[in-house]
Amino acid sequence: MKNLIRPAVTLFVLMSVVTGLAYPALVTGAASIVFPDQAAGSLIKVDGKVVGSTLIGQNFTDPKYFWGRPSATGPMPYNAAGSGGSNQGPLNPALTDAVKSRVEALKAADPTNGRPVPVDLVTASGSGLDPHISVAAAAYQAERVARVRKLSPGQVKEAIARHTEGRFLGVLGEPRVNVLMLNIELDRQRPA
Q1: Which residues are registered as beta bridge partners of 78?
Q2: Order of strands, edge to edge, in the sheet holding 164-165?
Q3: Which of 118, 134, 120, 29 lies closest to 69, judged by CA?
Q4: Nearest-angstrom CA–CA distance, 189 and 150
Q5: Are residues 5 and 81 in the same domain?
Q6: Which residue, among 110, 172, 169, has the nearest Cα to 137 in the 3D structure?
Q7: What tens digit of pLDDT does each residue of 140-164 get?
Q8: Are 138 and 89 members of one domain?
Q9: Would you give the DSSP letter of residue 172?
Q10: Is the pLDDT of residue 167 over 80?
Q11: Within this chain, do residues 92 and 21 fall inside the same structural domain, yes or no?
Q12: Across-strand partners of 49?
């Protein structure tokens, strides 16, 4: 029995060191060298202060800002520790009620906008952390943001164009706009 326990314990300790310490340290070190921004969390700094990440949405509700997709994370919106969707199907009355209230909030913030509300402004993403909106969702909000910030619609549309990311590898996904990056640029142009 003693002949079996010693090699088993030795192998356990050796594999724990290799897979639990050495390998993660090697991968983390390599990532920090090859992809330093991504390895650090893709953090965004304004005036030396971290204001967010390009990978996680934020809860903008002020009319001077572009609003992102709703978040279904708990206990608060955009909680990276509690990533997850609402798991509400299209026939669920709670989803219908949530969408109606989100449409009403968008209409209340911009009562002159008679265009149809893009679906990504009223439905949460699967993770609840999506930092992007569609180009259509950004265009829907452009006039409101321009009016509140006292910018021309053209200035806001140019900012949207600068922050529109294309399809991955030119074919995968849809063009999208990073809401935080767009709002940061608008704050630099004209704080409201």
Answers
A1: none
A2: 132-134, 176-178, 164-165
A3: 120
A4: 11
A5: no
A6: 110
A7: 999 999 999 999 999 999 999 999 9
A8: yes
A9: B
A10: yes
A11: no
A12: 46
Residues 88, 154: one domain? yes
> Could you tell me if 171 and 182 lie in one domain?
yes
pLDDT digits (tens, 9 = 90+) for 16-47: 999 999 999 999 899 889 988 888 888 888 88
**Helix H segments across 35-134?**
36-39, 93-109
Tokens found for residue 143: 């006039």
Domain encompassing residue 6: 1-39
Same-domain status, 10 and 64 = no
* pTM to 2 decimal places: 0.80
CA angle 192, 47, 42 (to 5 degrees): 100
Any idea what the Cα angle at residue 66 is, between residues 154 and 36, rounded to 5°? 100
Separation of alpha carbons 168 and 62, rounded Å: 31
User: Residue 143: how many CB atoms within 10 A of its CB?
Assistant: 16
Residues 35 and 115 in one domain: no
Tell me how far apart the alpha carbons of residues 144 and 188 are, in angstroms, rounded to a whole number: 18
Length of the chain: 192
Please state the domain count of the chain: 2
